[in-house]
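Interim report, section 4.2 (structural modelling).
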Amino acid sequence: MKKLFRLIIMIIMGLVINSCYYDAFPEEEIIIDDPDTPIEDVSYQSDIIPLWAQCVGCHNGNEPPDLRDNVSYNELLNGFVVPGDAESSTLYKTLLGVGAPLMPPGSQWPDSKINLVKDWINQGALNN
Ligand code: HEC
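Predicted structure of the assembly:
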């Protein structure tokens, strides 16, 4: 009888210890790469301007918008970008080629770049 009691205690202890062990190591968080999740605080200067390197070949003053580094922000805010509303912005539409000619012509950017521009616009299109 004593032996059985001890066995039961051991089983219970085992369960308790096991459950503590389990609690102490929560499952690893799974990070899902969701393209709809905005990247926090997109910077115009360090994230967006470098993207225009693939556009200035044509947009260098002759073809609006002028996307050269020192003037691109003012150019874009002058009719090509609706701050806070990417869907209504001509710039965003051209990157998708929906409701405007596709830019760069003939080869759509990967989603990662397009979404960066989208997030920047939706975060207020700041000159940050
Ligand atoms: C090969 C030359 C070329 C390149 C590269 C190019 N564009 Fe253009 N872009 C044009 C031309 C030409 C137009 C005038 C519209 C047309 O005829 O398609 C234009 C028009 C635009 C417009 C105005 C569209 C409108 O409806 O008013 C925007 C915005 C634009 N481009 C953005 C970009 C961006 C951003 C890039 C880089 C990702 C880029 N373009 C790359 C030639 C180019």
